[in-house]
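PROTEIN SPECIFICATION:
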Amino acid sequence: MNEGMPIHTAEVECPLLKQKRDVSFKVNVFRGPDQGGLDVSACSEFLEKSGQPNCGHGCVHGSTAHELYEAELKKHREELSKIGPNVIG
C-alpha cells in the first residue's frame, strides 16, 4: 500500500486470540474495506516480537475497522466536494 495513506489506530478484538489489541490500519478509500482498502500496519501483539503482524489480519473484517474506513471515506468525499465539479483531473 502507498506510504501516503492515512493510518488509524484502534483497540479491536483479535479474532484469533479473542483479546483486545491496539491495531494500526492503513486506509485506502479507492478500494472497498474488504477488497484491500484496509491493511494492518502494526499490532500490539507483534510489537515486541517482530513488529510486523504475521497473522491472518482477520481484524480488518470487524466493525471497528469498517467504522474507521467509513470515517476516512466520508472525510475524503468532503475534501473532494470542496474542489468543485468543474475541475478537470
Summary: The radius of gyration is 15 Å. The mean pLDDT is 84. The beta strands are 7-13, 20-27, 38-43.
